[in-house]
Amino acid sequence: MDSVSPNPSLIGTTLREHVLAGMQAAPGATGEFTSLLNHVSLAVRIINSRVRAAGLAGLLGYTGETNVQGEQVQKLDVYANEVLLNVLTRSGHCGVIASEENDEPIYSNHGGKYVVLFDPLDGSSNIDTNVSIGTIFAVLRRREPTPIVDDALRPGREIVAAGYALYGPSTVFVLSTGHGVHAFTLDPNVGEFFLSMPNIRCPKKGNSYSVNEGNCARWAPEIRKWSEHMKTEDKAGGYPYGHRYVGSLVADAHRTLMKGGIFAYPEDSKSPTGKLRLLYEANPMAYLFEQAGGAATTGKHRILDVQPTNVHQRVPLVLGSKDDVAVYKEFVEGKR
């Protein structure tokens, strides 16, 4: 099954034109949302230019510091974070900005209507080996009269836009504003993102699974049982599945979105509440997968229904084709 339903008349549309068309179709639109997304796109293009030349610019390696997550900070982490913070602050559209790299959200009293949550550089541990990395973000509308943390602590079902940039062989910007999922590819000669994959649909069932098998000794028995199931010969059911794992969420999720199958980062004895961040990674990806006809779960609950309790909350994350995610849940629930 194709993951994309191309419309030749749409190919060549720029990201700016796509976002503008959405604004023009929305009654009462003021243009602020459109401007905000264009600012996110600007930040991504700036980050991309530095990622492409990181080795030449002396931006490979660690800073020697650790972030609020207890992880070593890469030089490019710092650069990407500063770019997003500066661009979004100057946009004037954000009342609350929260980053995976910052202890606390940043608040503005200048009337910004939106909340932006982001992971500035996902997969940064892969930077030095030139493996695909990315930027993940989600946008919500503010609901509090004064910007406070509660503006950010809302379930993913309230997201109004989410997306990611994948810095790979080409730079791809994947976006949803609640009307399907569309991918744009950066033309470096023009400096613009052009629509290259409209209306992405995640296949209902895939033939590959993505999980860090090195953690299997720490998994619960039902998750180990699921993993063995994925590797067991069953031609009628389409098994065994191929194993594909990069270790960069953006790269693994993008492949799963396009080709189908399942990505899983379950809880384990080392990370009993999960490893990935709810606000900056799990919610944006879950939103995109559901918009593309896929599914996303903790194993027990829909990701987009999880109520955040702090801005750096972690959760188990399982996403992919609907049928494959359903099978995973059956194992977790003891039905297999």
Number of domains: 2
Oligomeric organization of the protein chains? single chain
> What is the class of the largest domain in the CATH system?
Alpha Beta
CATH superfamily of the largest domain: Fructose-1,6-Bisphosphatase, subunit A, domain 1
Output the radius of gyration: 19 Å
Q: Give the CA-based shape.
A: globular
Number of strands: 17
Structural class, by secondary structure, is: alpha+beta
Report the biggest beta sheet as strand number plus sense, adding barrel if it closes. 8 strands, mixed
Distance between the termini: 27 Å
Strand order of the largest sheet: 4-3-5-6-7-8-9-10
Low-confidence sequence ranges: 1-9
Provide mean pLDDT, rounded.
90
**Do you know the CATH topology of the largest domain?**
Fructose-1,6-Bisphosphatase, Chain A, domain 1
Number of helices: 7
Fraction of residues in helix? 25-40%
CATH architecture designation of the largest domain: 2-Layer Sandwich
Give the DSSP E fraction (strand runs of 2 or more residues).
15-25%
**Which sequence of SSEs, written as H and E, runs from N to C?**
HHEEHEEEEEEEEEHEHEEHEEEH
